[in-house]
Amino acid sequence: MPYDGRFAGDPLQVLNAVFGHPGFRGRQEEVVRHVAGGGSGLVLMPTGGGKSLCYQVPALCRDGVGVVVSPLIALMEDQVAALRQQGVAAAALHSDLPEGEARGVFRDLHDGTLKLLYVSPERLLLESMLNRLEQLPVALFAIDEAHCVSQWGHHFRPEYRGLGVLSERFGRTPRLALTATADARTVEDIRAQLGLRDDPVFRGGFDRPNIRIEAAPRESERAQLRALLKEQAGTPGAGIVYCGTRARTEKTAEALRADGFDALAFHAGMDAEAKRDAHRRFARGDEVIMCATIAFGMGIDRPDVRWVCHLDLPRSPESWYQEIGRAGRDGLPARALLLYGANDIALARHRIEESPAAPEQKRIERQRLDAMTAIAEAPACRRKLLLRCFGEDTESENCGNCDVCHAPPKLFDGTVAAQKLLSAAYRTGQRFGVLHLVDVLRGRLTEKVAQFSHDRLPTFGIGKDEPDGFWRSVARQLVAQGALDVAVENHGEVVLAEEARPILKGERKVMLREEIAKPAGPKARVTPAASGDPLFEKLREWRRTEAQGQAVPPYVIFHDKTLAEIAAAKPRTLDQLAAINGVGGSKLQRYGAAVLRVIAA
Ligand code: ADP
Ligand code: ZN
Q1: With a threshold of 0.90, does the pTM exceed it?
Q2: Which of 7, 218, 423, 516 has the fewest CB atoms within 10 Å of its CB?
């Protein structure tokens, strides 16, 4: 049943009938009513927060076509496929579209049958395109991933700058900018660039309670990754490993393949074909592990990413949150694991110092990095710290779904330990890495120790009562606290930093976290409730076949969450099926009978 505008004007009816959702979430309703009534504004919601409906519903409520600016072709195609499944006339215009198809899109546009048009910024800003749109009723402009307009962010797209012209040429048409980045500076930049200074900002709830947050020092990344995969075994869905460098994506994917996993690498340096293939496999719902740089991300709206693991420290809480936000968009339990080392922090600091950026920009980058480090080394709830970066102060002290809340670390007075380590660094001439310092502290007569006569230092063996891991942890925490620095541009030698002096002189007390053997505390419930249910599996199988037949990703037919609800409720009639979240009118008509047959069998 193609959407024929029957409920135009009533957002809630559109939501029920077209999208099959019983109600709006968070601030969606407010935004939808504002835009449906002709207002403009900026929406800040986390990834997975439900931004798409904020413009899709008002576009269907208003006259004319909703024009959605989107930076990525893959993103557009996904959204268009999903909308068509819901019976909404949608199309995309971008540089990869064959000439003939583009003509078809223009025809529908002029006939007035198109309700949503996704378009790349370059394409939209062509004079011919703007002229065309000026002749037509336009329901609204939605500017997705609006942070691309800002040079402050990490995703600046020069083409986005030109979008300011929309406010000049289409002053009476609602313009809605949407982003998951909430950084204050970026927000102001978006408002200024897009002419939204006098329009409201809608800030959605940033918490994603279904994502379990964990962070751990990177001791042995292969083993740590394997442990995660072992816990996830048997849970359907995909995973993403974010790596700091291109080479690491390839090495990691290779290692995982050797372990028998279906792993792919993805980074900006691969050729276009390989990137498209990887994207396609991921998008169509294969159970793959994507080992990627942050180049992989925008435009992924696969709902069943079950976990995201970072092998290197992200550069800011904003980027980290955006990346982990790709997990669990279906609302089912998901995990985010962050692995980091002392070198990461030092390396990131050096990168900032050496970058050609302006001093003001460097200062911001440093603050972001400090906030990120604080989360990684958090002695209390990580989610609370993270949400504070987005201006959300939570009431409770304990989120109950992060590793710190499950197993709060004990703090101890580490002043003496810190002094021992700092003096080992000092007395060896600040020319050696952490591993050598640990050898000296533990009193190990290695070749290197002998070569430099470090066994004759007073610090030799003063740390023999504590294991290696303890000393590595002290070193890392001292780097995080600004007492040690790692000279990354050379050979990773450890040098004293500003905070070392007061500690060595006994003027500053150092509190350290006791590293506890993890995982402690209750294991996260990582398996969607339904997996293992034979009916759920049968429904997934039916969906896979259906999706293959139509060459669309499985989740545009039904999400796992919807299938899980169907499996639990076992509806016997179309009416009962229609009551399930995610089953709208069009899908009921297309798939209702088939789903009921699967249930009956
Ligand atoms: P974003 O663009 O903000 O990252 P999406 O618009 O893709 O997020 O929405 C994330 C998920 O939440 C989607 O699977 C969508 O179907 C679901 N969703 C959004 N709004 C609602 C709602 N009101 N009721 C039920 N599900 C919703
Ligand atoms: Zn917590």
Answers
A1: no
A2: 516
